[in-house]
Amino acid sequence: MSKKNLDQNGRLRNVVVGFRMSEKEVDLLNRRVLISGFTKQEFIINSILGKEVTVYGNPYVFRSLQDELIKFIKLYGKGLEDENDDEMLELTLKTILAMRKKGKTEVYPV
After folding, report:
1. CA-to-CA distance for 17 and 80, rounded, in angstroms?
2. 101 to each of 3, 6, 65, 68, 82, how far by Cα in Å?
3. What is the predicted pLDDT for the residue at 56?
4. Within a 10 A sphere around the Cβ of 34, how many other Cβ atoms?
5. 19-76 pLDDT, tens digit each
6. Three-class secondary structure assignment of the chain
7. CA distance linking residue 8 with residue 60, whole number of Å
8. What is the pLDDT of residue 12?
9. Mean pLDDT of the region 72-94
């Protein structure tokens, strides 16, 4: 019998949950995951269970924020046509302001 694969907290996660999403929903999910600094699995589990998703600054998160800001700089002047862009802009700016204050940003599922 093979050894059980446990996560960092000693839990056995052997149940797979799958669901379908549209292309826009997947894009928004991926962007939110990048900014959070979590793995996609951690982000989805915390979001679904209503747990606090706290973003702590690290090089990975800063790079993701930089990429989001570059995207919005390219959109500047054109107006925000996509509601996902509007939501991501608000989330990005809240995260940056909280990091500037050495605080934490709580990201809750919308």
Report:
1. 34
2. 45, 37, 16, 20, 29
3. 76
4. 18
5. 899 999 999 999 888 888 888 988 999 889 888 877 777 788 878 887 877 777 777 6
6. CCCCCECCCCCECCCCCCCCCCHHHHHHHHHHHHHHCCCHHHHHHHHHCCCCEEECCCHHHHHHHHHHHHHHHHHCCCCCCCHHHHHHHHHHHHHHHHHHCCCCEEECCC
7. 20
8. 80
9. 70
Beta bridge partners, 12, equal: 6
How many CA atoms are closer than 13 Å to the CA of 49, on its beta-carbon side?
9
- Rounded-to-integer distance, Cα 66 and Cα 8, Å: 30
74-79-81-85 Cα dihedral, nearest 10 degrees: 50
Q: Which of 18, 28, 24, 23 is nearest to 109 (CA)?
A: 28
pLDDT at 26: 94
- The pLDDT-based confidence of 110 (bands split at 50, 70, 90) is very low
